[in-house]
C-alpha cells in the first residue's frame, strides 16, 4: 500500500470538526480518539488554568503526565465562558463544527448558554455529545461523579478483590473510559445517520450506565441464580482453572477456557489422571470442586520457576502469560512490532513518547500525532482563521481576559 493510501486510510474522519468542552478524562479520551481518526479537534479551556489535569503531577518540564496522556493532536483555545463575549465565540465555533463534546454535570452547559437546544438552533446538523456520571433522570444526577464513584455503584468493585479482602477499584480508570468509549459509539452512529437525514442529534452517555453495560456475564450470573457473584481474585467466577497461579519465584496466568486446554494443562502438570477424575472431568465439576483442584495445581507449579512454566505451558499449548509491570508491558516486543509507541516533538519540552491508538485501516494505524498543546496556544490562530478576528480585536480580547494568549 502506498504512503498516500495508508495516510488516507488512517484518517477516516478527515474534514470533521470537533469542539471539545470536556476535561479530566472521560471526554478528553473520546476527543483524542476522534483526533487519532483524523478529526480536527479544538479543545476549549478556561483562561485561568485550563483543564484541571494540567496541574496533576508528575510533570515533564511543566506539562502534566495526565494531560499529555489524553490530549495529543488537539488545538487549545482558552476562553472565559463566564463572559458573554466568550460564550459568543464558543457559539460561533460550534456553528462551524460537526461534533460538540462536553462532560459537565447535567444543566451546566444550558446555564452557560451552550446547551444542545441553543447550539442546534444555529447548526441543525450538529452532533452534540454529553458524557455525565449518572445522566439527567438519575436520583444521583446532581452528585459529582468520578471514576471510583461509578466503579463502586456499578458493582464491579465488589468482585475486584481476593476472597475475604476489602474491595478495591480497578487499576484502570474504567468508569471514565467506559463512558468515553460508549460515547464514541454514539457519536459515530449519529454521524452516520446524519449522512441520511442531514440532521444531528443529542448523544447522551452516563458513566454508571456504561460500566453496568460492561458487566457481561456477571449480570447474568445474578439474573440466572439470584445471587451476586462473589469475589474470586484473579480467578474466574465460573471457569476453573483460570487465573493466576504461584511459581517458585512469582506467578503465571493460565486460562483453560475450553476442555481441550484443560486436558493440555493437566498433561503439562504431569497429572494426566485429573482428566478422568469425576471431580474435575467437566466445567461444572471443576467449579464445584475448585477448593480441591487448585491446591493440587499450586503444589505442582510452585516447584519450578516462572520461566520454566512459561516455556512448558507454551509447549503444551496452554494459554498463558507472565504478569508484566506497566513498564515491562510498554517495552515488550509486541508493542514494538505493532508500533504502539510513537515519539512527538514538543517545542519547549522536547521529545515525548506517546501510546498510539490501536485501530488499523487497511493496515495503517492512526495518522502521526502532534504534541499536546500549551494552554491557549492555538487561540489566536483559530479565531483568526475560523472567525476572521483581526489582530486588534484579538489584542483587545486578550487584554480583557476574554481569551487567553498564544498563537
Key descriptive features of the protein:
407 residues, alpha/beta, Rossmann fold, formyl-coa transferase, domain 3, three-stranded antiparallel sheet, 19 helices, 13 strands, 15% strand, elongated
Average predicted local confidence, pLDDT: 95
Low-confidence stretches: none
* Straight-line distance between termini: 37 Å
Describe the global form.
elongated
Characterize the structure shown.
The structure is a single chain. Helix content is 41%, strand content 15%. By secondary structure, it is an alpha/beta fold. The protein folds into two domains: 3-214 and 335-399, Rossmann fold (3-Layer(aba) Sandwich); 242-324, formyl-coa transferase, domain 3, CATH 3.30.1540. The mean pLDDT is 95. Its EC number is 2.8.3.-. It holds the Pfam family CoA_transf_3. Keywords: Transferase.
Secondary structure layout plus pairing:
Blueprint: H1 3-9, E1 17-20, H2 26-36, E2 40-46, E3 59-60, E4 63-64, H3 65-70, E5 74-79, H4 84-95, E6 99-102, H5 108-112, H6 116-122, E7 127-132, H7 147-154, H8 174-197, E8 202-206, H9 207-213, H10 217-225, E9 242-246, E10 251-255, H11 259-268, H12 273-276, H13 283-288, H14 290-301, H15 306-315, E11 320-322, H16 326-331, H17 333-337, E12 341-346, E13 350-355, H18 379-387, H19 391-399
Parallel strand pairs: 1-2, 1-6, 2-5, 6-7, 7-8
Antiparallel strand pairs: 3-4, 9-10, 10-11, 12-13
Helix pairs in contact: 2-8, 7-9, 8-9
